[in-house]
Amino acid sequence: MPDRDYREELSPRAWPGADPAADRTDEPDMSSAERRRRRARFLRDLAEARELRDRVQPRRAKTARLRHAMRMRTFRW
């Protein structure tokens, strides 16, 4: 089996936008209001994704609801 040729392509780590630390701006002027807006948007998107998953996989959603109910019943205060 011949050796593979060396590829000159960029590795996935070298792709633009692959490093989240490099994309983060260290500017202190990001207001807390902007941070709260971004967080609220993220939480809305997350809730929407959960609702979509529940619609697409009703059996899994039902078992998750039952499992959560069982956890809540057995929780000791």
What would you note in describing this structure?
- The chain has 77 residues and is mainly α.
- It has helices spanning 20-23, 32-56, 58-74.
- Helix 2 (32-56) packs across helix 3 (58-74).
- The protein is flat.
Produce a short descriptive summary:
The protein has 77 residues and is an all-alpha fold. The protein has helices at residues 20-23, 32-56, 58-74. The chain has three helices and no strands.
Mean pLDDT: 78
What is the string of SSEs from the N terminus onward?
Answer: HHH
The portion of residues forming beta strands comes to: under 5%
Number of helices: 3
Largest sheet: none
For the secondary structure, the number of strands is 0
The unreliable regions are none
Distance between the first and last residues' Cα: 65 Å
* Cα-atom radius of gyration: 22 Å
Question: Structural class of the secondary structure composition?
Answer: mainly alpha
Summarize the amount of helix as a percent range: 55-70%
Shape: flat
Task: Provide tags for this entry.
mainly alpha, 3 helices
List the helices and strands and how they pair.
Blueprint: H1 20-23, H2 32-56, H3 58-74
